[in-house]
Amino acid sequence: MRFPSNKTLAKYAVYIGIAGISSVMYMRWKIEERIRNAEYFRSAFKILRQHRGAVSLLGEPIKDMGFDIGDSNNSCDGQTANFEVSVKGSKERGKMFFSAMRSDEAGWIINRLELELKSQPDKRFIIQTPTENSAPSNE
């Protein structure tokens, strides 16, 4: 039996490596897409885009520039969600921080939403805070 040459084995290794990396990138993209289409994520962006102060600071249109799914601070367990998302407007870039909670009656509720501008990294603008309706009850 004749073994393949080193050149042939190297080609196979390159093809397998490319296929593996492509698969991982595709799976990561699908996970990010599912998160972006989730109710809590869309609600947070809706609140940010409708906030006059945020719009005046960032400029329109406000775009999602991504998030790190490998960051342990970005998580969703089905009942609570916490994310740090890079955002960009026509005037400025920044990060949106939000936390959401799921209730059986109302679905996903954004508890807190903050905006940090790239030009002012030591300051966070509070866009939304918990309301009486979104705060957990002690019953």
Automatic annotation (TrEMBL):
Keywords, sorted A to Z: Membrane, Transmembrane, Transmembrane helix
A GO cellular-component term linked to this record: mitochondrial inner membrane
Matching Pfam families: Coa1
Gene Ontology annotations of biological process type: mitochondrial respiratory chain complex I assembly; mitochondrial respiratory chain complex IV assembly
InterPro entries cross-referenced by the UniProt entry: Coa1
Transmembrane segments: 12-29
Superkingdom to which the source organism belongs: Eukaryota
Keyword hit for Protein biosynthesis: no
Name of the protein in its database record: Uncharacterized protein LOC101893690
Species this protein is from: Musca domestica
Lineage: Eukaryota, Metazoa, Ecdysozoa, Arthropoda, Hexapoda
